Amino acid sequence: MITQLKTIARIAVAVLSLGIVSVQAEILITTAGAFTGRNIFRGEQIQHGTEMAVADINSKGGVLGQRVEPLIADDACHHTARLLSD
User: What are φ and ψ of residue 74, in 5° steps?
Assistant: First the structure.
């Protein structure tokens, strides 16, 4: 009986210790803009603003403790480019 209780206690400790391990994931923030084409200057501003926001968020601990990473997509200032890239 005592051996069974010790085994159950060991299993419980092992299972509970698994919950202590934290998994780090990145949270992606997607930004689409004209990074090529005739409106490239707007895309550069969008990219710069996104990078500043991500740096600010990460400097304050991220979102729920997770790092934020930018995912920049080029739509070339064309309304169907996003649909075509999927």
Answer: -95, 120
pTM: 0.59
Whether 13 maps to a domain, the answer reads no
CB-CB neighbours of 60 under 10 Å:
8
Domain count, the chain: 1
Q: What is the pLDDT of residues 24-76, one digit of tens each?
A: 568 888 888 888 888 888 888 888 999 999 999 999 999 888 899 988 888 77
Checking phi first, is residue 37 left (phi over 0); if not, alpha (psi -120 to 50) or beta? left
74 - beta bridge partners? Answer: 33
Q: Is 43 exposed, middle or buried (0-12, 13-18, 19+ CB in 10 A)?
A: buried
